[in-house]
Amino acid sequence: MSEQIRLHYHRPPDRTDLFIQELLYEDEEVVVTYLASTPMKRPLIVGEEVALEAGAPAIWFTFPGLMHDIGRFHTADGTYTGLYSNIIEPVTFHSRLEWSTTDLFLDVWVGRDGEPRILDRDELDQALASGCITDETGAAALAEAQRLLDRHHAGTWPPAIVNEWPLPRVRKTL
What we know:
- This protein is of the alpha+beta class.
- The protein contains three helices and eleven strands.
- It has helices spanning 121-130, 135-154, 167-173; strands at residues 4-11, 15-26, 31-35, 44-46, 49-52, 58-62, 69-74, 80-88, 92-93, 98-111, 116-119.
- The longest helix has 20 residues, at 135-154.
- The chain starts with a strand and ends with a helix.
- The model has no long low-confidence stretch (mean pLDDT 96).
């Protein structure tokens, strides 16, 4: 039986969700986890395409000390849709299997077309205006999102490990 991590995911001002995911792989640079069935009330749409929907599998890559994670997203039937990176406060590892982080509203999406784009700038602006996050934190979130775009254009992001864990490999591992 595989081990499960418990991720407490805080969304300012007052929402915290608990995600329980299967631990697949870990080393000093990355932890790979799997959420077999994403709990969602409505699909995540990017542009006019479904990026993730209720019941869809997601493979997560968490990088200790970094301000982002990466999810390999799919539709419920397992069709790969793209990479989704949450801009977050670096994950706090309370123990090997108990984690927490805070969402910083911005996301970076790389769909099947390979073009990266920053999502939810309006949500960051609202969080700043309402005082949910500080100007300094907002600036750090914007800088991280831009860094990911710049690295993508330079061919250095996402890291190779993200493509080493496609859904068929994950399902064979479990």
